[in-house]
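Hey Z.,

So I finally got round to the tryptophanyl-5'AMP thing we talked about over coffee. Here's the setup:
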Amino acid sequence: MERVVSGIRPTGPLHLGNYFGAIKNFLLLQEREECFFFVADWHSLTTHPKPENLKKRTEQLLIEMLACGIDPEKATLYVQSDIREISELYLYFNMLAYKGELERVATFKEKIRKHANNVNAGLLTYPVLMSVDIIIHKATKVPVGKDQEQHLEMTRNFVNRFNHLYGPLFPEPEAYNFGNELVKIPGLDGSGKMGKSEGEKNAVFLGEDPSSIIKKVKRAVTDSGPERPGMPVSEPVQNLFDIMKQVSDPATLAFFKEEYAQARIRYGDLKKQLAEDIVKFTAPIREKIRELSANPASIREIREAGAARAGESARKTIEEVRALIGID
Ligand code: TYM
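And the result:
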């Protein structure tokens, strides 16, 4: 069995991008590999959330991950900050990461463009912490969306550097989607990816009310419509097709694509169908979130059991690392 690790930041409710980029694969992998899935609460500190919000969002994310179908009997589900060994390994790996390579990471460059007034060292070394999350369990497969690909490349660099300096301890992990291209789910605003930081209206959340989902999809950006048959599909419309590909049946998508190709598509109909299919897809998750939210004691128990299992795996690794680097 291979080891699988992946995390999600508690920065907002789970959205369709998280689901189809990552969680869908968590569900498949937990059936066949040894899996560790976690709430990356330390990672979310780069933007200084209010303490009470961080706590709430962490608990909520555990609930939402469970509601999606992560089974704590099959996978180890835990909170990053419950495993203090990660912070120690982060310290060691920070000595192996060079400022120049960290500054070249695309997600870092994007963050400094968007938040020039908060370029903190935690943001710069974000890929180091992420690498440590993975190697603390010696994982080889990391199910993530397309936006995380470069971080996995960095992880392999750090691993190679460590192995070269101290001895072969860590395997090289890879971003994983069963041999397929990594997934990028677009947002509703006509460009880019669906994301929490891309604006509330851009993302559809799994626990969102049907009426709100319908309203958001209705307002999604399209174009003025194809003028004649055979026109290439514009980016905002392709985005809606991309989301439809995930939530609707193939015949529905094929129908609207053909309508577009024949230049007789009605975006009102497309959006109505898409909203309906999203509501249908998310209904059981919404229901499960409600159920689980009513029982905080069981969530606490699951969290503790996950911390115990993840902690055991992390302690084994950190002891090996200490011995190799001369801190015994
Ligand atoms: P985060 O919290 O931004 O997103 C969690 C997961 O959802 C995927 N994702 C998407 N996939 C496709 N299309 C989208 N629009 C979309 N939006 C989000 C992300 O790729 C990710 O898989 N750095 C990570 C969290 C992390 C991590 C780790 C992941 C910390 N340590 C170790 C793997 C292994 C992040 O910010 O994900």
